[in-house]
Specification:
This protein is mostly helical. It has 4 helices and no strands. The protein has one domain.
């Protein structure tokens, strides 16, 4: 159980770090991607970029977590997905007014399956 906890913590920290770094890069490269105080991000293109990045980061985090706890790959993936979903839900609710509702819904709907797919991709191959 200790390895699973470490794997989930590492997966969570990795997801968060990658999200923050890529978010900073995108907002520097595409100024319209950074919300201005009191204004919403309405650009479908920018929001879709963030969705795609979220999926990629979720897959990578699932892979990384499973590499730490390969004996419990499925369990590790599902726990990491649940933790990321819970935190993501709180963050999306807190930022509900910053983007259209579809963005929050799609972001959350793709979070769990993306992490689980990453965990499956990173799991030891059965012979």
């Amino acid at each position: 159980m200790g390895r699973i906890i470490i794997a989930v913590v590492v997966g969570f920290v990795l997801w968060t770090a990658l999200w923050l770094v890529t978010g900073l890069v995108i907002t520097k490269v595409v100024p319209d991607a950074a919300p201005v105080e009191g204004q919403r991000i309405e650009s479908t293109g920018i929001l879709l970029i963030f969705i795609v990045i979220s999926v990629i980061i979720s897959v990578v985090s699932g892979i990384a977590a499973v590499k730490i706890a390969p004996a419990a790959a499925a369990k590790t993936g599902w726990i990491l997905a649940a933790v990321l979903f819970a935190v993501g839900l709180a963050i999306e609710i807190g930022g509900w007014d910053t983007t259209p509702a579809w963005y929050h819904i799609v972001f959350l709907l793709l979070l769990i399956p993306s992490v689980v797919v990453g965990a499956r991709l990173g799991a030891p191959k059965q012979v």
